[in-house]
Amino acid sequence: MFIKKDNKVELIQGIPHGSHLDTVLGYAERLSEILSMKGEQVGSVVFEKGRIIKKKLKLKIYDVPLGVITFRVVTDEKNVLLTTYPMLEDLVEVEARILKVLEWKEWPEGDIVCEVSNEYGPQITFFAVDYLMKKDEYVRRENAKVGVGLLLYFLKVGVDARKEVQGPGGENIVIDLSEAEVLLPGTLNGGFIDDYIFTGHVKEFREVNVLGKDGYLLKISIEPLGLVPAFVLKERVKGEIEKDAAVYGMGWLQGKVIGAPAGI
């Protein structure tokens, strides 16, 4: 279903992608390697920013495929770099109701606030890797099938029974993580709105290599999303990964719209 909601878009202060680049490259300074590989342009778009004073940006899009990860590079029409970020190719599909579109003030990027349509009905916020091309669809759609996945800042194998995190008001919150599968806002640990703390169980994993860096592609059972694909650098893993291992970590939740929900 498509709807018209002028108040669905909210402008927010975005953040640089340095920490996101680090999840794959190890350190953001390796970005020059990605830019040197951008090759042929894969698309272009006229992106409209602003609600009162509108301006149109003519943008060029380049994708750098590196196996399980693809880097998206966006420039203006004069080939000046505007943004670049890694994208996980494997995603878990969920049906969701789109509640809010959080567009970044400085860059042609956005986060999507949605309610997952399952028995738990959780609200999540993910960075939309396809926002450049699908902004209008996010704004107009009430319901959509979306794919989401995690790029991990760290992963710890073996979960302590109790974990202390800082609450939104600065207070300390103690949560029991033994045998649990939970997804908590990363803002509890100083993260951005699309960062998440989680506990879960590894159901699948394999070793991969991206630009000379060893890592793991995993599928982690995390309620309320199900079997969530995740990428983590080997150097950011504490402990030995094995099937059904309990894990604790923090990562960047990203996603894209896939289509209409079943039956629509």
Number of helices: 3
Based on secondary structure, the structural category is mainly beta
Radius of gyration: 18 Å
Portion in beta strands: over 45%
Helix and strand topology:
Layout: E1 9-12, H1 18-25, H2 31-35, E2 43-49, E3 55-66, E4 69-76, E5 81-88, E6 92-104, E7 110-116, E8 123-128, H3 131-140, E9 143-157, E10 162-166, E11 172-176, E12 182-185, E13 195-210, E14 213-222, E15 226-233, E16 237-238, E17 246-259
Parallel strand pairs: 1-6, 8-17, 9-15, 9-16
Antiparallel strand pairs: 2-3, 3-4, 4-5, 6-7, 6-9, 7-8, 9-17, 10-11, 12-13, 13-14, 13-17, 14-15
Descriptors:
264 residues; eleven-stranded mixed sheet; four-stranded antiparallel sheet; 3 helices
Describe this structure in words.
With 264 residues, this protein is mainly β. The chain has a domain at 14-88. The chain has three helices and 17 strands. It has helices spanning 18-25, 31-35, 131-140, and strands at 9-12, 43-49, 55-66, 69-76, 81-88, 92-104, 110-116, 123-128, 143-157, 162-166, 172-176, 182-185, 195-210, 213-222, 226-233, 237-238, 246-259. The strands form three sheets. Strands 1, 6, 7, 8, 9, 12, 13, 14, 15, 16 and 17 form an eleven-stranded mixed beta sheet that branches. A four-stranded antiparallel beta sheet has the order 2-3-4-5. A two-stranded antiparallel ribbon has the order 10-11. It is globular, with a radius of gyration of 18 Å.
